Amino acid sequence: MAALHVRALPMGLFPRLGEQFVARWHRAYLDSPHAVALVAVRRTGAEEDVVGFLVGATDRLSFHRELLRNHRTALAVRGGLALVTRPAVLSDFTRTRLRPYLRRISGSSEPPVPKWSAPRAPVADLTAVAVATVARRGGAGRRLVETFLTRCAASGTRWAELVTALEPGGAQDFYASTGWSVLHDVVTRDGVSVRHFARRLDLPEGS
């Protein structure tokens, strides 16, 4: 999963920190009751190759809190080691992300929730999905996304969001044709144009 993520989804900081960091980050999705990690495999005889993956949160805020509580130290250590051996990435990180990340790690970036506030409706986050070139156009990506959305709906989540890079032949056309609605376009800290999508989820029958 980590190797495919770094190769197929280079956008953002985490893939630039290398496979070991991404693998440790993915592990947080495996351990969480608020997240999903899926793989698509291709079987050749007795061998299996990972040709696709998806990681996402069924409840974005709860997963974020859990990530900071249970995985903050391990991710910070791995991230620090990766930055030391990647001077160009370290320079970009210091310039664009150091202060926000320090606030996030310290837990000060999230305002306290008043005791009188109404219950928060969970929002799902499709964080990353990729399919290897050899397996594309075979429906693996669609099945990964549909399985993720089914699990989100089964958990009671009614709204899902994602972000994808805007590029020729990119995933934005796939999402636009499979029921996702455009929210807005922005430019990231790294100067990459991205599009935010959202989708309303139906609860399973009998819920």
From TrEMBL:
Domain N-acetyltransferase: residue ranges: 126-195
One GO molecular-function entry: acyltransferase activity
Keywords: Acyltransferase, Transferase
The keyword Transferase appears for this protein: yes
Superkingdom assignment: Bacteria
E.C. no: 2.3.1.-
Pfam families: Acetyltransf_10
Name of the protein: GNAT family N-acetyltransferase
Lineage: Bacteria, Bacillati, Actinomycetota, Actinomycetes, Pseudonocardiales
